[in-house]
Amino acid sequence: MTEEARGTAPVPEKVDLAADFRESGVAEVLAELDRELIGLAPVKQRIRETAALLLVERARRKLGLAHETPTLHMSFTGNPGVGKTTVALKMAGLLHRLGYVRKGHLVSVTRDDLVGQYIGHTAPKTKEVLKKAMGGVLFIDEAYYLYRPDNERDYGQEAIEILLQVMENNRDDLVVILAGYADRMDRFFSSNPGFRSRIAHHIEFPDYTDDELFRIAENMLSGQHYTLTPEATAALHEYIALRRQQPHFANARSIRNALDRARLRQANRLFESAQGPLDAAQLSTIDAADLRASRVFAGGLDHERSGASQ
């Protein structure tokens, strides 16, 4: 009896990787990464390499070669505001298109979403998060806060044990990405070797350069239909150089916060000085004064908190 008669598809002799690449939609995901994220060349290269590995693994499966589900759990390290959450979202889409996760959604959490405040509280919280993440990607930001050895009453270790078990037993239905500052993640892995052994891909996110941050700012302003005067353009370049030297700098997040404050100043300037109807250009133009009112130019700090490390 032939394989067709038995209802099973015949094993092909060859697989066209280029055709698989086109048909899978992976090219679209990679193009979105290039289009939506400025810079990050080493990160994008690692994503492309991972996609190539998964395409080859899928081709081997089609040809009936020995294979097992690759370990896809990852670690994203870098300073705040360098796009780790955005890349995790794109990775979820890529894994879904290649058939390595069923749904392709991203569930982003921190310690507070996993660890309870009293006995018997942590396990249900952690299991509920894992239930929501199944079939997709679980992104744990500032993952090192799960482990607090200085606190004997901390329940983070319980969450860690549950996570490790699920990462091992359900790796064909869930990908976990741990994220945070590089030095703290190194200490976390040293204290939790079970995590290190389950993480196959370590991707380091570099800080943006001044020019990249300015291009990011331009994209943010363009997306909201704002423009800079020539004087404001010079002020923004100067702001970026000054702000990145100060504490709690969060890359693209700090730039977004600065632009939000500039828009606030622009709105107040227009409201207080308007003598008549305003046209679209006036409502959409950021002046140098809207930026130079920042305390950064006087050596002070902007009103900004240091956020999570995504």
Structure annotation, total helices: 14
Largest sheet: 5 strands, parallel
Our Rg estimate from Cα atoms comes to 24 Å
Total DSSP E strands: 7
- Give the terminus-to-terminus CA distance: 56 Å
**Spatial shape:** globular
Low-pLDDT regions = 1-6, 305-310
Following the backbone from N to C, one meets helices and strands in this order, namely HHHEHEHHEHEHHEHEHHHEH
Strand residues, percent: 5-15%
Walk me through what this model shows.
52% of the residues lie in helices and 9% in strands. The protein is α/β, with parallel strands linked by helices and 310 residues long. The strands form 2 sheets. It has a 5-stranded parallel β-sheet with strand order 2-3-4-1-5, with helices on both faces. Helix 7 links the parallel strand 3 and strand 4 (175-180). Helix 2 (26-36) packs antiparallel against helix 3 and helix 6 (122-133) runs parallel beside helix 7. It is globular and about 75 Å long. The termini are far apart.
Summarize the structure.
With 310 residues, the protein is α/β, with parallel strands linked by helices. The chain is built from 14 helices and seven strands.
Which characteristics define this entry?
310 residues; alpha/beta; 5-stranded parallel β-sheet; two-stranded parallel sheet; 14 helices; 52% helix; globular; disordered N terminus; disordered C terminus
